[in-house]
Design goal:
Strands 4, 5, 6, 7, 8, 9, 10 and 11 form an eight-stranded antiparallel β-sheet that branches. A four-stranded antiparallel β-sheet has the order 1-2-3-12. It is α+β, with helices and mostly antiparallel strands.
Length: 186
């Protein structure tokens, strides 16, 4: 069930995709509070990002859908595995506001009972301007909350989606913020 939800959520945020990605871990950062770093090699320019992971979180990549999944630790009590999905794609020559609006309209058409819990706003993360919004929705009968961040750099789009159950989203907000605030687009 969790894998099905992961696949369906991924499909829901795919407006555009990049090329194949490669991930390698760099754990030689002992003096950092977030000891795990994921480095996407520079030679594969389709996924030009670096980011840090909270302890215990894992990275899974979907070669076919070309999405980087960052997954929370699990236990037998979990109904849903919290995640951050990052999709790198093209902008089809659209500016940030237009690209964001198209993605949000697509999401609004896919889910039951989708309600924005905040108005879209802008945030600068590591020198890059993002447009973001938070919303609640039902997916496969589960009440979820998602924080969506969208940006454009050069000719690439970056869609970052943080998802958790509505009643646990705030419990994972710190980890979501750590991941998103560590995201460096090259």
């Amino acid at each position: 069930m969790k894998k099905t939800i992961l696949i369906l959520l991924t499909l829901s945020i795919l407006y555009s995709c990049g090329d194949k990605t490669e991930v390698k871990d760099n754990t030689n950062q002992l003096d950092r509070q977030i000891p795990e770093a994921v480095v996407i090699p520079e030679e594969n320019n389709s996924f030009p990002v670096d980011l840090d992971l909270p302890v215990g979180w894992e990275v899974a990549k979907d070669e076919q859908l070309r999405v980087l999944h960052i997954l929370s630790p699990t236990n037998e009590m979990d109904e849903f595995q919290e995640m951050v999905n990052i999709v790198v794609g093209t902008t089809s020559d659209k500016e940030l506001d237009e690209f964001f609006d198209l993605n949000l309209k697509m999401i609004e058409g896919m889910f039951e009972e989708l309600n924005q819990t905040e108005k879209p706003s802008y945030e600068t993360i590591n020198g890059i301007k993002y447009k973001k919004v938070r919303y609640n929705y039902l997916f496969a009968g589960l009440p979820l909350t998602a924080q969506l961040y969208v940006t454009i750099k050069d000719d690439k789009s970056f869609i970052v989606n943080c998802s958790a159950l509505q009643n646990t989203f705030d419990d994972y907000a710190k980890e979501f913020e750590e991941i998103v605030n560590s995201l460096e687009i090259k």
